[in-house]
Design a protein that fits this description.
Elements lengths: L1 H37 L9 H12 L6 H22 L15 H8 L1 H16 L4 E5 L2 E2 L4 E2 L9 H5 L22 E7 H12 L12 E6 L5 E6 L2 E4 H7 L7 E6 L2 E7 L7 E2 H9 L4 H8 L4 E4 L1
Parallel strand pairs: 3-10
Antiparallel strand pairs: 1-2, 1-11, 4-9, 5-6, 6-7, 8-9
Helix pairs in contact: 2-3, 2-5, 3-10, 4-5
Length: 304
């Protein structure tokens, strides 16, 4: 009788703890994969493909269209290979990646269940474009991208003052006007604006009447400010944007009721692929190579 009771107790214990054990095993599998991704020095060859889903998670919305996700996967992979070549890296580790989310970071942001689902989506986009990168005349391109343009992507040679970016040409992004991030109005206090600019310029006596001292000296072909004159100083449009924390360098300034109203168009630097417009192209049936070829001219898709 005692043996029977012991058997029943043992059996019930197994039944009660079986779900917990299953969860632990499943969780440990994910942890093992995470350890492989983020632990340095344990493998001789660090496969680039292992890192692409984590880079994707940091760069693009998981709600994007599948072809858009694949386009971004090729961008991410090209960035990684270009970085490895320029820095002489042969053993890739997560610490080298400026944009990257580990599985633990994904779990913190999305929760365990969503992390599994989203990681699967990013991994699929990586697998369906496995090894594919973009090159121009045998060299990895600079696969720039941004969230939303002002309606046009910018010309690389003009922005970078170099002849090394012929594949980055001005193209239209007609869908970007539909984005909620296309237009933003920011109101700045004169004193605060003067202090922020003075701190960067090293100008102690920048007047609060800062509007009278600011002049947009130059814009590129896409309409983004490239040179801002502030008193006797010249500031790059992108630097001006960052100092004042503006959405883009495509902006207009106006004094309204004692404050400075800044109206910006677009979100980001405006160079290369517009994620919003590209996603709309995907919705309309364009595949990832067509999307990328629209933004990066005369490139080749190479399998590494």
């Amino acid at each position: 009788m005692k043996e029977k009771i012991k058997f029943i107790v043992a059996f019930m214990s197994i039944i009660m703890f079986l779900p917990y054990v299953c969860v632990i095993l499943l969780h440990s599998n994910v942890r093992a994969e995470e350890a492989f991704i983020t632990t340095a020095g344990e493998e001789e060859n660090r496969d680039v493909e292992v890192f692409v889903p984590g880079v994707l998670a940091a760069q693009v919305s998981v709600q994007s269209e599948p072809e858009m996700l694949k386009a971004q996967a090729v961008i991410a992979r090209t960035q990684i290979y270009k970085m490895m070549e320029e820095q002489g890296i042969t053993d890739l580790e997560a610490k080298y990646l400026s944009q990257y989310m580990s599985l633990s970071e994904m779990e913190k942001v999305w929760g365990y269940n969503k992390m599994q689902e989203y990681y699967g989506i990013f991994k699929q986009a990586a697998e369906e474009t496995s090894g594919i990168v973009m090159k121009y005349q045998g060299q990895y391109i600079d696969p720039s991208y941004h969230a939303v343009s002002n309606g046009n992507s910018r010309e690389g040679n003009q922005v970078y003052h170099s002849e090394n970016y012929p594949y980055l040409q001005t193209v239209e992004n007609p869908y970007d006007i539909l984005s909620e991030d296309y237009l933003k109005v920011t109101m700045l206090d004169k004193k605060s604006m003067a202090e922020k600019l003075a701190a960067v310029l090293g100008e102690e006596n920048l007047s609060e009447d800062v509007m009278s001292q600011i002049q947009i000296n130059e814009k590129d072909a896409a309409g983004y400010a490239t040179k801002i004159k502030i008193g006797e100083h010249i500031m790059a449009g992108e630097e001006f944007r960052k100092v004042l924390e503006l959405n883009s360098a495509c902006f207009e300034l106006e004094e309204v009721n004692g404050k400075i109203r800044i109206t910006t168009k677009g979100l980001g630097h405006g160079i290369g692929l517009s994620q919003f417009n590209a996603n709309e192209m995907a919705k309309n049936g364009e595949d990832y190579q067509t999307i990328l070829s629209y933004y990066f001219k005369n490139i080749e898709f190479i399998s590494e």
